[in-house]
Amino acid sequence: MLSQATMSQPHAAVRQFATVKPRASLNSLFGGQPIETFEPGTAVFWEGDEARHVFEVVEGVLRVFRILSDGRRVITGFLYPGDLLGVSLKEQYLYTAEAVTRTKLRRYEHGRFQDEINRSPELRPQLFACLCDEMAAAQDQMVLLARKSAEERVASFLLVIARRLLGDERQPVIEIPMTRLDMADYLGLTIETVSRTMTRLTNCGVIAPSSRHAMVVRKLGKLAVLAGEGDADDKCAAGFGGVQQAVWPN
Amino acid sequence: MLSQATMSQPHAAVRQFATVKPRASLNSLFGGQPIETFEPGTAVFWEGDEARHVFEVVEGVLRVFRILSDGRRVITGFLYPGDLLGVSLKEQYLYTAEAVTRTKLRRYEHGRFQDEINRSPELRPQLFACLCDEMAAAQDQMVLLARKSAEERVASFLLVIARRLLGDERQPVIEIPMTRLDMADYLGLTIETVSRTMTRLTNCGVIAPSSRHAMVVRKLGKLAVLAGEGDADDKCAAGFGGVQQAVWPN
DNA sequence: CGTCGCTTTGATTTACCTCAACCTTGGTGG
DNA sequence: CCACCAAGGTTGAGGTAAATCAAAGCGACG
Questions:
Q1: Domain covering A148-226: architecture
Q2: Fewer Cβ close by (within 10 Å): the C or N end of chain B?
Q3: Backbone phi and psi for residue A167, each to the nearest 5 degrees, phi listed first
Q4: Exposed, middle or buried, B58 (CB in 10 Å: 0-12/13-18/19+)?
Q5: How would you label A15-36 residue by residue, b for 16+ Cβ within 10 Å and e otherwise?
Q6: What is the CATH number of domain A4-139?
């Protein structure tokens, strides 16, 4: 039973873009809980808060971030419906979670959550899978931040979103609920650079803005190439199945 | 029992600098296995290989990395004795693991490992804790890569090593088994920048080189401040004398 | 003692940041 | 219904940290 002893450490969370979410039964765990709503910009919890609960995102988008002492902000991930937030063995949350859009969550008491997980041989592997997906996403992000150019970063970001929304459409319309500042803090760039890069992508016909927070991806293949990862172009991601998942057409 | 179904996905790995390693019994799982030795530069497995085994690092240091199609390399982590490698539900390894120094490993068949974990209510939380630690480390790394200056990156790196080796000594002697290129690929910098930065740290008296792969940390506190995170005496870091380098008094 | 791999140091370039102005959009109230 | 405003976004000009290009040092080893 995930004994006290071993649970006596703080942090982490299954927050992910864990793109695929076959966690039906895991999520059903939260079924009985009441739904809480958070307005845009509202914090669900702060870095350093005692980690009392695990949350399931029912609706909306969240950002998860840390702030350095001098104010620099780093968004380590965005959370979408179906994702879990606050899973970890740490005593305190290691980051702040805030609603990007109006968000609905279900809350589960932390200890109880661990008990349930531990009790159920069915839930356990699901949670484990979530953690693995999140880890994989974190590694992709490290690659992006360590070595990709501004253009590759933005392209990668759009690509992940496009693939999540619809696996295969030729010209998917994607929603970008977050602001440019959010994107910048997630991609390790400035707003200006993000803006300029998106303008360039638009001029190249790769994307076409619909509204400020939505756009059409006109050339998914091109986007994949621009994103870096030996993605589209080379004979299909040489090994690498690219953590993500997805299969892109053209 | 971590059924096939749910295990049907590739990747990840508990590789970490999971600084604390109270995973005595987890590691004891590998006790019966024969020890395998890998010479420096040798790969334990490659990105894309079928993920058949989980490894325990008995001795030595490993680097775990991915390579972009055009050759850019990103080291996502280093592994030390006690760490686990290859833990994940993915079908293939998502990265390559190579020995930095002569390394000794114990190997455990993947499915069997999962079974053991699933069977033991004692091991499970330990593994979970490892994953959480690794996730926490990955997030620190994202912060480092997204927003820290070259100097902060190098300082952070040295600090983590110093802290792992000895929690508190005033002037710890630390070993840096990896090359400058490894450091650069881990920190998202170039060799030249790493080299210059270390030279500067030396000139400031923060560190003092012993041999090429070992040095004395003369001012742990200073190093913590330079590393960014409101770390050591945070209220001290607050002022932050201009992120960069600048000139500090002794 | 010469070669090879790694590291350091120097000069120059550049991608991205910073600073600053301007434009868009959506909400509000007159 | 439109004028105004604030917040977010775009665009431009110039600065800079780190990359790139280019040479030497420095050990280790045969």
A1: Orthogonal Bundle (1.10)
A2: C
A3: -55, -30
A4: middle
A5: bbbbbebebeebbebbeebeee
A6: 2.60.120.10
Chain A residues closer than 8 Å to B143 by CB: 66, 68, 74, 76
Using CB atoms within 10 Å of the CB of residue A103, give its burial: 0 to 12 exposed, 13 to 18 middle, 19+ buried: buried
- In b/e form, how buried is each residue of A191-228, taking b as 16+ CB within 10 angstroms? eebbeebbeebeeeebbeeeeeeebebbbbbbbbbbbb
Question: How far off is chain B from A47, nearest CA to CA, in Å?
Answer: 13
Helix ranges restricted to H, chain B: 4-7, 24-28, 110-119, 123-147, 150-165, 180-187, 191-203, 220-226, 234-239
Return the CATH superfamily for domain B4-140: Jelly Rolls (2.60.120.10)
Model pLDDT, residue A168: 65
Residue ranges of chain A that CATH labels 2.60.120.10: 4-139
B194 vs chain A: nearest CA distance in angstroms? 14
User: How far apart (Å, rounded) are the C-alpha atoms in residues A33 and A106?
Assistant: 6
Provide CATH 2.60.120.10 ranges for chain B: 4-140
- On whether any CB of chain B is under 8 Å from the CB of A69, the answer is yes
Q: Which fold has domain B148-239?
A: Arc Repressor Mutant, subunit A (1.10.10)
Which of A114-123, A223-232, B116-125, B173-182: highest mean pLDDT?
B173-182
From-to residues of CATH 1.10.10.10 in chain B? 148-239
Task: State which residues between 103 and 142 of chain A bring their CB within 7 Å of strand D.
Answer: none
Written as tens digits, the pLDDT of chain B (250 aa) is 433 333 333 333 344 333 334 456 777 777 788 999 999 999 999 999 999 999 999 999 999 999 999 999 999 999 999 999 999 989 999 999 999 999 999 999 999 999 999 888 888 989 999 999 999 999 999 999 999 999 999 999 999 999 988 766 778 899 999 999 999 999 999 999 999 999 999 999 999 999 889 999 999 999 999 998 775 444 343 333 333 333 333 3
Taking C1' of C17 and every protein CA, the nearest residue is A190
CB contact under 8 A, B69 and A139: no
Tell whether B69 is within 8 A of chain A (Cβ).
Answer: yes
Residue limits of CATH 1.10.10.10 in chain A: 148-226
Is B243 (CB) below 7 Å from strand C? no
